[in-house]
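Before a colleague's protein record goes any further, I have to sign it off. Would you go through it and say whether the fold makes sense for this chain? Take the sequence as given and treat only the tokens as open to question. The record follows directly below this note.
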Amino acid sequence: MKSLKQIALVAALMGSGAGVSGLSEAVAQTSVVGPLARKAMLGVAVEPAPGGGARILQVGPGSTVEQAGLKTGDVITAVNGDPTADNKALVVQADKLRAGQKVKLSYTRDGKAASAETSALARSMETYQRAKTVYGAVPFQGGLLRDIMVTPEGAKTDGPVVYLIQGYYCGMMEGVDPKSAYHNLAQGLADRGIGIYRVEKPGMGDSQGGPACVDTDFDTEMAAFREGLKTLTGKHGVKPERIVLLGHSMGGVEAPLLAAETKGMRGIAVYGGVMRNWHDYMQDLFRLQSFYSMGMDPAENEDLAEAMRPILNRIFLEDVPLSDIAKMSPEAEELLKQALWWDGGDQMLGRSVAYWRGVGQQRLATAWRDADAPTLAVYGEVDYAAIDDRDHKLIVDVVNHYRPGTAKYATLARTGHGMGVEGSWAEARAGNLAGGGQIQGAPYNAELTTVLGDWIASLT
């Protein structure tokens, strides 16, 4: 859970310095093509100010805010005339800015009102050693989705390309931070001559127009990834036999669905995915996750899971509106808010209830049966989001049932859901307890690149 203080980074504090140290060669090989403009970067860390507005905690070097002359302690009260009631409102306003756009920042300093105007600076972009990065655009439902293609220097024209499909969260897909898992994964693959391709979800990153991620249902999200695949095979000219789908977290549900629609793919890999029906997974999540991850009382977890059972049944099996479920009892309303982060409307766990119901309707054994491609299922030893290793092993068993010998299982020791090294079981538990349920900043486990790269090499 997030701290109540809700300190936020607005469009990345790292600013223009992220990922460029010692990479002048790589910087020259990053480009933007097509009509989709780069989003801007304010470049501040902020917190709510007592009297309203967003108080600056830190100003990123080379950022828009620094260029405008604002300093630590200033309170931003409006962006282009739109009030910023708190740090969250500032994040919303900052997300609307595009590079080169004139921006007026209203603020107070030592109790005195002031304003400053400047041109918004672009967010930094992904840069890699010995690889070219191209930022493009994918048309989708009246808007454009940002896509990113990383191609190693000297890559073979028939070389493999990983299409990475991310988890459920509505956030940017980019790996600008050189410490991030996706950046390290992309660099490691590039070092092995393997390209990597990604597409942002609707409304995320530089994407513009069309639906918003938090409002989309599962079919819409799948349609976006499908358009990404169409762009990869069309505009980028990567034939299906070169493509390896890599599903991370919820992407492990979506990857076999995509593969079942496109025959002849080189392979499918999943990390941190599920195989069981989503309704059943959620039930097990309440029963087991906090026991495994933090050593919480298993009997109390069982009580929670049973209290959640009628609520989950109404959500996934009966399609009852969340507001009607809340009216069942004060306890039901509280469970919706606390356990499922219900917003009082039609969203839970940061997505629309229609999205989650769509996930629950998928028949994954059928998808894996029809996804006619070699398969790799990788489980992180301390991946508590996946709960345990059962689903990954089941994926392998199901695929091998239909295509004997074509699926492989691997375990990454000491590795969590975010692909980072979190330690032994006991160390990960302690870290989760200290971090309120999650470990921040765990270094990427390069063994994942080795396992994935070796498996891809074996497919050629």
